[in-house]
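tokens incoming
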């Protein structure tokens, strides 16, 4: 019997913007020129060739004026080992990272991204 990976894993999107890390609850696309004007110098995650991913934290009204750039995505194992975060988490790199830490993906790749932002 095949297990349902979607039920065991979740892709979480985060925005590391203005010195804070926020998990985003709703994700949509924003055209590349509009994204570049709203977030100058920020390297976000692509939605497709013509747009970038943006989103808002839970409880925030869905509107472009409230949007934050998606700067990293983490595949989080819901039933992973839940070990304490260490250098492997903070220094993780890649377009989409994998996590099973107790942080829930919040710290994954933060050490690498802090240098870029």
């Amino acid at each position: 019997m095949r297990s349902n990976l979607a039920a065991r894993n979740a892709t979480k999107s985060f925005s590391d913007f203005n010195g804070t890390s926020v998990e985003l609850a709703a994700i949509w696309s924003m055209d590349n020129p509009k994204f570049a004007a709203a977030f100058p110098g920020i390297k976000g995650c692509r939605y497709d060739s013509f747009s970038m991913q943006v989103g808002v934290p839970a409880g925030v009204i869905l509107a472009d004026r409230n949007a934050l750039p998606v700067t990293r995505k983490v595949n989080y194992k819901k039933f992973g080992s839940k070990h304490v975060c260490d250098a492997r988490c903070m220094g993780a790199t890649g377009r989409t990272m994998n996590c099973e830490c107790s942080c829930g993906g919040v710290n994954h790749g933060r050490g690498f991204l802090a240098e870029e932002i």
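note: The two ends are 45 Å apart (CA to CA).
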